[in-house]
Design brief:
This protein has 196 residues and is α+β, with helices and mostly antiparallel strands. The chain is 28% helix and 38% strand. The strands form three sheets. A seven-stranded antiparallel β-sheet has the order 8-7-6-1-11-10-9, covered by helices on one side. Strand 3 and strand 4 form a beta hairpin.
Length: 196
């Protein structure tokens, strides 16, 4: 059922609604890789003294800026509310306040990366073990509760579950259905849902 049972590990602030808690996630953030230098052609290096080398000739050394990549920096659990997402791990804790959110995107299909105005680096959470709903779906649910309230979000979730069940039944009855027929079924479902 939704919302999922309240976490006793984290107290909610005044007017904050608990939405979901997901264990077994990693905190990921942008990290800069190691700088790698390379020599250009025409250079000659020679030893001047122990540990000291000189480079001469027409070449030189080039050291381009290192690439950035998303790196897991801690493991723990995440709590989603109508105001924020909180990660709690053994080394780090992180809070993404919805009032400071600049944007969010799915990461590795089940995780979520969140950009906030009070942090330079993008960071987020990814599941380490597939349990419950994914952090990306939990983030979207929390955003719905933030924007429209818990009752609206609950209604939307119930409708989505009903639609998913109907689509599974359609596919069980039409094992070799074409993509076009599945899309037509979905359009019919949307029209049916739009009726008063």
């Amino acid at each position: 059922s939704f919302p999922h049972g309240h976490s006793s590990a984290l107290a909610m602030k005044k007017d904050e609604v608990f939405v979901y808690e997901t264990p077994y996630v990693s905190l990921v953030e942008t990290r800069t890789g190691a700088r790698r230098s390379r020599r250009t052609l025409g250079a000659l290096s020679f030893r001047v003294a122990p540990g000291v080398y000189a480079t001469g000739g027409g070449g030189g050394s080039v050291s381009p800026p290192p690439p950035e990549s998303m790196t897991a920096i801690d493991s723990g659990y995440a709590v989603f509310s109508n105001h924020r997402v909180i990660f709690v791990g053994s080394k780090h804790s992180r809070e993404w306040d919805f009032s400071k959110t600049l944007g969010a995107t799915p990461y590795q299909s089940t995780g979520v990366l969140i950009a906030v105005s009070n942090r330079q680096k993008m960071s987020g959470i990814v599941p380490t073990t597939p349990t419950g709903i994914s952090p990306w779906v939990a983030f979207q649910l929390a955003q719905e509760v933030h924007t429209h309230g818990i009752d609206y979000a609950t209604t939307q979730i119930a409708q989505a579950a009903t639609d998913a069940e109907a689509q599974v039944q359609f596919l069980e009855q039409h094992l070799f259905a074409s993509r076009a027929s599945v899309e037509q079924f979905q359009r019919n479902q949307q029209r049916h849902n739009a009726l008063p």
